[in-house]
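Retry 2 of 3 after timeout on previous attempt. Resubmitting structure tokens to design endpoint.
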């Protein structure tokens, strides 16, 4: 079983040992130490296998290293054919923070999700709204059903093949977000070959950057919205995070009607 060493990075500190079947499960363990905050927990992975997690609002910081004796059985990767994504940075620029007038129109569009005539229409409206204002290569809405997460709406390369697929609600990045109810902004996953296939298998071929935000209503997790690969940048801005959270909150209210 893989082992990970978790610490706050303070001098003289003895790291905790976390035993988990994969990186995403170890990540879930660390996320439980943050509590639920207003901003996404930032997660950066470097080529040496070190994962840095921090929350800007609280200043909480953790470092997760792979134990040197750990080896991974990465197994087969059933989703490498699902996302043949272009490399971000194709000339698109990040959307600027909207003016007050623009924000007012966006708020009206978010609120209109509550009037969507069907659940499928609500999913489509929410994801279309996000990708209209956030320059991202792909987006997905995953909904909890029993012990699984179902891809109910997908925009991006080969979306037709991915829509309708399921994964365990306790696995992968989406599972970590569901269990912790914490939004995640993950960068650099592809830099580390030990993470690459395992994480790609669970979050469907993350090329560079992933923003995952839980859909929660009355403290109950309904699902997750994932946005992949911001075009022209290696990260999603604070406005992108807040906008996605607002859409998730409204969608959660619509799904609970």
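Retry 2 succeeded. Sequence:
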């Amino acid at each position: 079983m893989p082992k990970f060493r978790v610490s706050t990075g303070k001098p003289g500190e003895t790291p905790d040992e976390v035993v988990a079947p994969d990186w995403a499960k170890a990540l879930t363990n660390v996320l439980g130490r943050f509590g639920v905050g207003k901003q996404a927990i930032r997660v950066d992975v470097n080529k040496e296998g070190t994962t840095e997690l921090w929350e800007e609002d609280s200043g909480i910081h953790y470092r997760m290293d792979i134990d040197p004796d750990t080896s991974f059985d990465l197994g087969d990767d059933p989703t490498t054919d699902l996302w043949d994504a272009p490399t971000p940075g194709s000339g698109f620029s990040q959307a600027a923070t909207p003016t007050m007038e623009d924000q007012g129109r966006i708020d009206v569009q978010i609120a209109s999700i509550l009037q969507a005539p069907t659940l499928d229409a609500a999913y489509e409206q929410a994801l279309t709204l996000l990708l209209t204002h956030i320059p991202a290569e792909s987006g997905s809405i995953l909904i909890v059903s029993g012990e699984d997460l179902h891809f109910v709406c997908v925009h991006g390369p080969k979306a037709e093949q991915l829509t309708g697929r399921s994964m365990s609600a306790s696995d992968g990045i989406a599972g970590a977000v569901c269990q912790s109810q914490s939004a995640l902004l993950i960068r650099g996953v592809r830099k580390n070959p030990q993470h690459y296939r395992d994480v790609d298998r669970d979050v469907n071929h993350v090329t560079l950057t992933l923003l995952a935000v839980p859909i929660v209503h009355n403290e109950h997790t309904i699902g997750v919205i994932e946005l992949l690969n911001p075009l022209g940048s290696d990260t999603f801005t604070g406005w992108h995070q807040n906008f996605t959270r607002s859409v998730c909150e409204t969608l959660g209210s619509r799904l609970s009607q």
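Attempt log closed. The helical segments are 23-31, 100-111, 119-133, 159-162, 172-180, 193-203, 238-255.
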